[in-house]
Amino acid sequence: MEKKYLCQTCHQYNFIIIEDSYCSETVDLIEDCQTCCNPNTISYTVENNKIEYFEVIKTY
Ligand SMILES: [Zn+2]
Predict the structure, then answer these.
(1) How far does residue 23's CA lie from ligand 1's centre (Å)?
(2) How many angstroms does the Cα of residue 37 sit away from the middle of ligand 1?
(3) Among 4, 13, 29, 44, which is least packed, fewest CB within 10 Å?
């Protein structure tokens, strides 16, 4: 599934692909913004194909 998130540097929307999962597992990844190229750290948890937790943290 596709998830929209806000870049913490330029506040533009980006999209990431989230993998569906039945087991609860926290995923941390770093994505570069498509607009300003600054990195964002994204943490999410998927449980029963639903996003239970989603957070974007500014990365320096
Ligand atoms: Zn940005």
Answers:
(1) 31
(2) 6
(3) 4
Q: What is the mean pLDDT of residues 41-60?
A: 93
Q: β-strand 2-6 against 50-58: which pairing, if any?
A: unpaired
Task: Write out pLDDT tens, residues 6-50.
Answer: 999 999 999 999 987 777 789 999 999 999 999 999 999 998 888
DSSP, res 19: -
For residue 14, the CA-to-ligand 1 centroid distance in Å is 8
Q: Where are the domains of the chain?
A: 2-58
Reported as half-sphere exposure (CB side, CA atoms, 13 A), residue 15 has a value of 3
pLDDT(59) > 90: yes
